[in-house]
Automatic annotation (TrEMBL):
It comes from Haloactinospora alba. This is L-lysine 2,3-aminomutase. Signal peptide: none annotated. Keywords: 4Fe-4S, Iron, Iron-sulfur, Metal-binding, Pyridoxal phosphate, S-adenosyl-L-methionine. Its cofactor is pyridoxal 5'-phosphate. The keyword Iron-sulfur applies. The keyword Iron applies. It comes from the Bacteria. GO terms for molecular function: 4 iron, 4 sulfur cluster binding; catalytic activity; metal ion binding.
């Protein structure tokens, strides 16, 4: 791997990281041309849902001449109508009256409780136990082959996405956080469960951690012989590519990646790209090249989000660009049933149409992508199409992963509903009274609830 910086860097490449939070919102939204009432509504939304950007996002990604309609602006800045009008008005009135922080927090928490902060029961139903004793904090295990690990120091991001289904991790409420402080219990669990072949580091964003902390989490896993792959779920390539180019520990981080690959394990870099504009800066392409030179494989994924990337051309352009730079398109997700889903969700029928049209515009190298996929309680459900069977218009679906492994890959049908935006909006078709996953409880080996997008 070459550790030289062999291409001109953007003006912001070598700057120190600087975050902008809710206290900067009024100034930033004024830059986007919002009037006073609109700015107050945005601030109200940001009392409930998290907001954080950084200098790179502001200077390199957002087209301020196009704001507030610019897709990256909408990707990172709260929108006034992301929450019900009554809830926004309630918080706005408190802000206008300069209400005590305790009163604002109480109101915000009441609104958050209505937003399904932990979909699919992931805080209660999929937390494993070591030696049948206490639950492993910050570890989730649903599918036999895969464990998710939430490192404590990785429970934030370089910037927050407005649509993020993990929003509850970032609002400062301890009861909503899910994190682990070390890996020794995880290693013990993996040794007791040789069926686990892959660990996904997630959060937040694990790449917010410095190399020294990241190494302490990853290196013990290299000694687990049954582990075949380590995945890192991150949006750092989009929001802070300096992490792999000019940050003080960028080279050491890449050497850690090399050690993972040299150990004989696959290092899968699960990069979230939500829009083609995130690939525009030269700095991103340099970061991609440096990561790939370590032997890591970069797979790309994102949810389909209304007002940001809900058209086929956007996805086709994005997938082609990823292939051009050696990355592997992996997933198009459906927006999860949490947070501002009502604002961002795309109905399944339209989602399938967007996926199909984008898929038809790319070569076979980009058709590694799967979707539109719902990470729901019974498993990962893919919408394969819309057709007519025995005179009834239906959705054709199948499980990519399932709580019950016997369901994986078996097609099933749901009544066509142009308004349905999630699995639980659907009804069985063709005279069936229930879906296959409702027929019987899953086996003991898979009786854990859906944790996250993997």
């Amino acid at each position: 791997m070459s550790l030289t910086h062999d291409a001109p860097l953007s003006p912001s490449a070598g700057r120190r990281f600087r975050a902008y939070t809710t206290k900067h919102l009024d100034e930033l939204t004024a830059r986007a041309g919002l009037d006073a009432d609109e700015r107050l509504a945005v601030r109200a939304v940001a009392q409930v849902l998290p907001f954080r950007v950084n200098s790179y996002v502001l200077d390199e990604l957002i087209d301020w001449d196009a704001a507030p309609d610019d897709p990256i602006y909408r990707l990172t800045f709260p929108q006034p109508d992301m929450l019900p009008h009554d809830d926004v008005s309630r918080i706005a009135d408190l802000l206008r009256a300069d209400a005590p922080r305790s009163e604002l927090t109480r109101a915000a928490n009441e609104i958050r409780a209505k937003l399904n902060p932990h979909p699919a029961g992931q805080m209660e139903l999929n937390v494993p136990r070591l030696n049948d004793e206490d639950p492993l904090q910050g570890v989730q295990h649903k599918y036999p082959e895969t464990v998710l690990f939430f490192p404590k120091q990785g429970q934030t991001c370089h910037a927050y996405c407005t649509y993020c289904f993990r929003w509850a991790q970032f609002v400062g409420e301890p009861d909503l956080k899910f994190a682990a402080s070390e890996t020794s219990h995880l290693v013990s669990y993996l040794r007791q469960h040789p069926e686990v072949t892959s660990v996904l580091f997630t959060g937040g964003d694990p790449m917010i951690m410095g190399e020294g902390v990241l190494s302490r989490y990853i290196e013990p896993l290299l000694e687990v012989e049954t582990l075949e792959s380590i995945r890192i779920g991150t949006k750092a390539l989009s929001y802070w590519p300096q992490r792999f180019t000019t940050d003080p520990d960028a080279d050491e981080t890449l050497r850690l990646f090399e050690r993972v690959v040299e150990s004989g394990k696959n290092l899968a870099f699960m990069a979230h790209f939500s829009h083609p504009n995130e690939m525009a800066p030269d700095l991103v392409r340099q970061a991609v090249r440096r990561i790939r030179e370590t032997g890591a494989v970069i797979r790309t994924q994102a949810p389909l989000i209304r007002t940001i990337n809900d058209d086929a051309a956007t996805w086709a352009d994005m997938w082609r660009d990823h292939v051009r730079h050696g990355m592997v398109p992996y997933y198009m997700f459906v927006e999860r049933d949490t947070g501002p889903q009502d604002y961002f969700a795309v109905p399944l029928a339209r989602a399938y149409g967007i996926f199909r049209d984008a898929y038809a515009r790319v070569s076979g190298l980009a058709r590694t992508v799967r979707g539109p996929s719902m990470s729901a309680t019974p498993g990962k459900v893919c919408v394969d199409g819309v057709t007519e069977v025995a005179g009834e218009k239906v959705f054709v679906l199948h499980f990519i992963q399932a709580r019950d492994p016997e369901l994986v890959g078996r097609p099933f049908f749901a009544r066509y509903d142009e308004r349905a935006a999630w699995l639980f909006d659907l009804e069985p078709a063709l005279g069936a009274t229930h879906f296959p996953y409702e027929e019987a409880p899953p086996s003991d080996a898979s009786a854990l609830a859906e944790p996250a997008e993997v």
